[in-house]
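Lab notebook: predicted structure, single chain.

Context: the supervisor wants predicted structures on file for every construct in the current expression panel, including those that have not yet been purified. This is the next one on the list. No modifications to the sequence; it matches the entry in the shared construct table.
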Amino acid sequence: MESRRTLCHRQNQYPPVLQQPQSLRQIAHQPLTPTFQDARYLPQRLQDRWTVPPRVDSPLDRVVRRRYSQGMKALTVSLCALVALATALHADPQSISPEEARQYVGRIVTVRGTVADARVAATLNGKPTILCLDKPYGSRIFCVVIFMKDRPKFSFAPEREYKNRVIRVTGRVQVRAGIPEIVVTDPSQIGVEELGTEDRG
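Prediction complete. Output recorded below exactly as produced.
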């Protein structure tokens, strides 16, 4: 029976690199060509190096890797900023006095004070219920406004229930006719301090 080497010579299947003996160093640095597809004829210690040639980074590879790294850093910074913003939005609003409300126009705060005056202004648009904190009606310090369309959400008359009580009202401060106010659209925005509840409705 013919040896495998002789048979390969006859069928012209033997890799050309081994038909012309070269040093192992030369074989290891040969470029990958179709004539070297069969690595079985290489020495065992060269097979892994031959079948999985070492990676050589091109300039384009380095640019892509650098841009990817920069993009990941920017994404991490953005995520951290979003987490910080979400934490701030879910934090308890700052608590202020009625006299300080004018300094926080446009911001969501909690105003704490005693309802010194409470009435229904039936002659004004929307027939609002007005709760004046710390000072009586006309002092232009600060008011809580509940429009008639939102009164059905309350199971009681706000002008009677909150009169002379210490309340905390949370919402966005706005100025109407020169008076700072918070418009209440839900009973949960008002908490009565003595009872320690957030919603009396």
